[in-house]
């Protein structure tokens, strides 16, 4: 996404750039002409976002080789997202106490440690526990990466943010593909690969990122208290049911996809699943960056949300019908990625417009609640499919999306500030995309 211009570039009499100059739209050449410290954070951010979809292609292999049920394998998402959700409520306070650089480094150390331990794990329950520690590290890193990359840039902030968004998109798309490629060797390889790449990112940030100014103080319970705001609470309830559907598609779909391939006499494997979800991640990245801003400007935020939620509900119903069709599932998963990208960005942009709370606090509160929905979905999808039918989790996801629409409609009176179409700065727009896709 290219940053939209705000005002003409200006400067003070002393020659110091104003906020308008900092937010002016840069050329691509200017955007990628950044200090080494910015590139170091961008690299680590790419790997961090890759970690979200990395385990997806290897879930069936973990289930088979570790003699775990699909329900147990999907708990790798549940433990990761549950701890991420809890941590998100406190990351803004933590960063304000010890600083952005230290928060980044602690997050990276935790990811390296727990990913490396997961690579050597002997059982599925051990990996589930280690993924929880990984989730804590990822929450600390993701929640502060945007602030760090903006603070490290020497030129207009918009240029560094374009680089950050590029890293995000690449990470979301390449995570499942890398998981599939390495998972084709062994289910342990994606964990080991993540640990190595994150260790490189850690060293790069230690060497290249200078110590930043002391951040503004944030109260320990600021994010939890923010949920008392009616508009934020409405959007958080909308998001928890939406995220339930998001992670039903992401965490559960490898199993019916593998089963559908087996019915055709094929072994889909980690590489095949990784390829499908590479298409999913690529679609998500493209629509979140390029399509969502256009739709929200033309239709408005709330109409965009309701329309996409409705389309996703229909998609889930169709997936429940065609869950035995390999070609059908592949096409529907990729289409789902396109819709989810629009929804992620539009929903988080609505959060930023709906309240006058500090953006970091509002984002932490909203993200904490929505990740809880993601944590619950894998824990329910497996047992539900085992007890009823393979298409049942998709029907439940469709129902969750209908509830999400109801929450949004019922709370719409609290969203009067939404739809004024104020022009977001590049920092605000990047935050909408990064928090929305940081699922």
UniProtKB/TrEMBL annotation:
It is found in: Cell membrane. It comes from Brachybacterium tyrofermentans. InterPro entries: MFS, MFS_dom, MFS_trans_sf, Tet-R_TetA/multi-R_MdtG-like, YfmO-like. Residues 1-20 are annotated as: Disordered. Residues 37-416 form the Major facilitator superfamily (MFS) profile domain. The chain crosses the membrane at residues 38-62, 74-95, 104-128, 134-154, 161-183, 189-209, 230-252, 272-292, 299-322, 328-347, 368-386, 392-411. It comes from the Bacteria. This is MFS transporter. PROSITE patterns: MFS (PS50850). Keywords: Membrane, Transmembrane, Transmembrane helix. It is a multi-pass membrane protein.
